[in-house]
Design a protein that fits this description.
It is a single chain. With 931 residues, the protein is an alpha+beta fold. It has 4 domains: 164 residues, 2-Layer Sandwich (DNA Polymerase, Chain A, domain 1); 200 residues, Nucleotidyltransferase, domain 5 (2-Layer Sandwich); 229 residues, Palm domain of DNA polymerase, CATH 3.90.1600; 136 residues, Topoisomerase I, Chain A, domain 4 (Orthogonal Bundle), CATH 1.10.132. Helix content is 38%, strand content 22%. It contains 29 helices and 32 strands. Strands 19, 20, 23, 24, 25, 26, 27, 28 and 29 form a 9-stranded antiparallel β-sheet that branches. The protein has a 6-stranded mixed β-sheet with strand order 9-3-2-1-8-10. The chain has a 6-stranded mixed β-sheet with strand order 14-13-12-11-15-18. A hairpin with a 2-residue loop joins strand 12 and strand 13. Helix 10 packs parallel to helix 12, helix 10 packs across helix 16 and helix 21 packs antiparallel against helix 25. The structure holds a DNA duplex (12 and 16 nucleotides). One of its GO terms (molecular function) is nucleotide binding.
Length: 931
DNA sequence: CAACACGCCTAA
DNA sequence: TGAGTTAGGCGTGTTG
């Protein structure tokens, strides 16, 4: 029988030995639990070779078994393995304690792999992994499972040796000996098995706020639970559970009489529907903790796990984690946060931006009245509640948010829940555990707090990428080239790895690579690195998947796309991991070697391009100067038979170069798109041929015009070939249009101006646009023009508790104001929207809640918006064309005076003259004389 | 007024 | 946020 692994844990047999439970799904989507016995927890101890016997005796006296093995230490090139003991325990929970006692045994030098969760140890050692397929030889009940009556089935306990990997997803990692034949077919011809269908339940709760305040689980009941199902549950796509008695006219509204009965019903439906995935929006921070507390108070059992256990809500520092054995718990809020750059992450805004669906809303103050009402009013409350679980479900399914996490789980071997909740570290480590094991290398435990902070202090010595100074201003005809997976390809090209870095042993031949950062790495002939090998596997798989995507159906393509994305993420994670202070495998020499090669490479690339100097295009072919010369012999072709473009690098960042093509001579003709592509391809090919494989420079796009402001800030009118056709668009990097701490009015105005300047070359129209926007602001009257408020909203992330801020920040000041008013307060991690209102004092003190400002008739500080939001970005764009501030702010005399006055001047007029003017004002006053 | 620290967000 | 990395611009407010 085969099944796809969803989750894992362990229980104990009557003798106190662990039994691993794998929770999975059969190909048809039926849940199954497989129990495996006989697998034991273990770890490694490196020992002084002269004291092996006494050390073994000492360890055996603790009731552990110990066996001498040869293993390589984690970091550093070693010619021979070290003597180690594999120490086997009975109870996984005892390993932590035995680690200390074993360390105190004379002769024991160091311990390894002492903190590997037992479920992970099991999966790693059996070459199984999250969302991968496994096969179990099940004597009874296994083969006829698919035809057995409904409900889940349990198999076993079977000996753990009767479990093995089944099939091979294209992204499932292969072993070391398959490097010769890259791609999916390489895995012993194993066929990829499509993912089993997942049953998904999304839910949302409504609580009764007291007089419009935030509900608290100590006092406010849960009044509704809405549920959305995919696939439908008993023919229904959604249900709303109601915690009061009412004649419920509709079948999809279940009136439960009271809160307790409603919660019990929720638990019943959960068990009955038996979802693989349980989702909500902000459910980890709100719904689950709330339900947990209400259930505790009302004495409702929440045993919804596939092992019969309860859900577990664990508060971690600033975060809550929810676990249900055998199921995947998904809080969509952090997923949406990490996948999309939005100004706000409320369910309302996320649904609008990502699904294009409006959310129904009920004013918290109205809730109580609606709750006790009936008829249409009550129906409104029900439909509001229903909508929220619907939106959560559709964010998950329509955006296929889970697909890439599934692919990441399959590729890395981590359980899906760990991929969703954790970061790159867990995946990289899970992956490395497997690869190091194949090569007989052990992995250290996680560094303790002291070691981590020592490393963190040290890691300021890690230098990053090189950014070239841009040639500022407008440039025409720019080629964009970049290196494909630069850091991974550097690691492969130079055999950079934990296992190749020279620490204390040197290779017999003495052959080493010396990176610009110093240090030495042995050549692949001596010892091919583990990480370079892994990267090479992953790269080959990605190339293969991208090839297969071209001929795949729509449905297949989205799965393949998730897989190639997962491979890309993983490929790029190894470098970051090596420089991460809390990594098990931290190596500053390794991380520094990678970036130092990167820096010299981009500088080299610039030099190479400029040494090439120019490229010719003749008869539909691009030629280097020497090719042109040799092709034409003594008689250089006549002008008109070829085009020549002179090359200069105008910008570059880490792995990219921007090359200007200057048509040769006064009568030089601009390149066509096709010619630009030819030239770009020629340069890429030429540079690549001079670099060690698999380093590869590729032609990415061509820009007819570009505007480079400063490092990391530029805009281009790019042309890209999509399926044989040229598509053009404006590509903006780093400028205010892509920054969320600027208002929409700025983004819109700047965006349109960029289009006018870059696509149409119409600077005057951009000037007119800016003038009209400024004029509109000067005449601003919120009562007549309330829609503009939305465009004036700035947002900033409230990153830490107020007390930890050393300086005042507008959004933090606002959060405090809101707290004092007793309304809803932004919490740490939220993006806080605000507008700047007119008044006395510092900018940071004049941030206001947009709706509060509107309701209370506060005046917008138009001077701030003109002088700080519109003018600076627009002038940065237009100044290179000789546009000055005065040209943008030209208006009736009266308003001009007003404009040039400092922010708050209107108030200053009415202020007591005795007060000393603020510093900023004094400066502005002085600058008035300049005009 | 220049130099600086802080905070935020983005590029890669 | 129980954590992939560094480079870099810019606004705000303070300091010398």
């Amino acid at each position: 029988m085969i099944f796809q692994i969803l989750d894992a844990n362990y229980v104990y047999d009557p003798d106190g030995f662990p039994i691993v439970q794998l929770f999975g799904t059969t190909p048809s989507g039926r849940p199954v639990t497989v129990q495996a016995s006989g697998f034991r927890p273990y770890f490694y101890a490196r020992i002084d070779e002269r004291r092996i016997d006494s050390a073994i005796d000492g360890i055996r006296e603790m009731g552990l078994s110990a066996e001498a093995v040869d293993r390589f230490r984690p970091v550093g090139y070693q010619r021979r393995p070290s003597k180690m003991l594999k120490v086997v325990a009975k109870d996984p929970k005892s390993v932590r304690d035995f680690r200390e006692s074993v360390l105190s045994v004379p002769g024991v030098l160091e311990v390894y792999e002492t903190d590997v969760l037992f479920k992970n140890r099991f999966l790693i050692d059996l070459d199984l992994g999250g969302m991968r397929w496994a096969e179990v030889e099940a004597g009874n009940g296994g083969s006829d499972l698919e035809t057995a009556p409904a409900g889940s089935a349990t198999i076993g306990p079977v000996p753990y040796t009767s479990l093995r990997p089944a099939g091979a997803g294209p992204a499932v990692a292969g072993g070391a000996e398959r490097e010769k034949v890259p791609g999916a077919e390489a895995r012993g011809g194993a066929k990829a098995i499509p993912n089993a269908p997942l049953r998904t339940l999304a839910f949302d709760i409504e609580c009764l706020p007291l007089h419009g305040a935030m509900p608290s689980p100590e006092t406010s009941p849960v009044i509704m639970v809405s549920l959305a199902f995919d696939p439908p549950y008993k023919g229904r796509e959604d249900l709303v559970l109601v915690g009061r008695d009412l004649d419920c006219p509709r079948g999809d509204v279940l009136c439960c009489g009271g809160e307790r009965a409603m919660l019990a019903r929720f638990v019943e439906i959960l068990k009955d529907y038996d979802p693989d995935v349980l989702a909500g929006y902000n459910s980890a921070e709100f719904d689950f903790p709330y339900l947990e507390e209400r259930a505790r108070r009302l004495n409702v059992e929440v045993r919804v796990g596939r092992d019969g256990g309860p859900w577990r809500v664990r508060k971690i520092v600033n975060q809550t984690r929810v676990e249900i054995t055998g199921r995947i718990v998904v809080d969509l809020l952090p997923l949406v946060r990490s996948s999309f750059s939005l100004k706000r992450y409320t369910l309302r805004n996320a649904s609008l931006e990502l699904l294009g669906v409006e959310k129904h809303d009920v004013d918290p103050k109205e809730m109580e009245a609606l709750w006790t009402s009936s008829g249409d009013d009550f129906a409104r409350l029900v439909s509001y509640s229903r909508r929220d679980s619907y939106l959560a479900l559709h964010l998950l399914t329509d955006l296929q948010l889970l697909d890439k996490y599934i692919a990441l789980a399959q590729t890395s071997g981590s359980l899906l829940q760990d991929v969703i909740d954790g970061g790159q570290t867990g995946m990289v480590e899970n992956f490395l555990f497997r690869k190091f094991q194949e090569r007989g290398r052990v992995i250290p435990p996680k560094p303790d707090a002291d070691l981590s902070s020592a490393r963190a202090a040290q890691s300021s010595e890690l230098k990053g990428g090189e950014v070239l100074e841009p040639k500022k201003g407008l440039v025409e005809d720019v080629l964009i080239l970049d290196y494909r997976s630069l850091y991974p390809s550097i690691m492969m090209a130079h055999n950079l790895c934990y296992s190749t870095v020279v620490t204390d042993e040197r290779p017999p031949s003495g052959g080493v690579v010396k990176p610009p950062s110093g240090g030495e790495f042995v050549l692949p002939g001596e010892a091919p690195g583990i990480v370079p090998g892994v990267l090479s596997d992953l790269l080959a798989q990605r190339t293969d998947i991208k090839r297969r995507m071209k001929s795949a159906s729509e449905e297949e393509r989205s799965i393949l796309d998730a897989q190639q994305y997962a491979l890309k993420i993983l490929l790029n994670s190894f470098y970051g991991y090596s420089g991460y202070a809390r990594a098990r495998l931290y190596s500053l020499p390794l991380a520094n070697a990678v970036t130092s090669f990167g820096r010299t490479n981009i500088l080299n690339t610039k030099r190479m391009v400029e040494e090439i100097g120019s490229v010719y295009v003749r008869d539909g072919k691009a030629l280097l100067p020497e090719e042109m010369a040799s092709a034409s012999g003594d008689s250089f072709p006549a002008v008109g038979e070829f085009k020549r473009f002179d090359l200069s690098v105008v910008y570059g960042d880490t792995d990219s170069v921007f090359i200007r093509l200057k048509p040769f001579g006064g009568s030089g003709v601009k390149p066509t798109l096709e010619e630009a592509e030819l030239v770009g391809g020629k340069i890429a090919e030429t540079v690549t041929s001079r670099l060690p494989p698999p380093m590869e420079l590729v032609f990415e796009a061509f820009a007819r015009r570009g505007l480079f402001l400063v490092k990391k800030r530029y805009a281009l009118w790019v042309f890209e070939k999509v399926g044989g056709e040229w598509r053009d668009k404006i590509k903006v990097r780093g400028m205010e249009t892509v920054r969320r701490d600027w208002c929409e009015l700025t983004s819109k105005t700047l965006n349109r101006s960029l289009e006018l300047v870059l696509m149409e070359g119409r600077v005057e129209e951009a000037v007119d646009l800016a003038k009209s926007v400024i004029d509109r602001l000067q005449r601003l009257d919120l009562r007549k023009d309330p829609e503009i408020l939305e465009d004036l909203v700035l947002t900033r992330r409230y990153t830490k508790s107020t007390a930890s801020y050393k300086n005042k920040q507008p959004h933090v000041q606002l959060a405090e104001k809101m707290r004092a008013r007793g309304g809803p307060v932004p919490s740490v991690g939220d993006r806080v929207p605000f507008v700047i209102v007119r008044g006395r004092g510092l900018f940071v003190d004049r941030a206001e809640d947009p709706s509060y400002a509107l309701e209370n008739g506060l005046l917008i500080d138009t001077d701030y918006y003109i002088n700080k939001q519109i003018l600076p970005p627009l002038l940065r764009l237009l100044a290179p064309f000789g546009v000055s501030k005065e040209q943008l702010v030209c208006c009736p005399e009266q308003q001009r005076l007003f404009d040039l006055a400092p922010p708050g001047a209107a108030v200053a007029k009415g202020r007591a003259p005795s007060g000393p003017p603020a510093e900023g004002q004094e400066q502005k006053q002085k600058s008035l004389f300049d005009f």
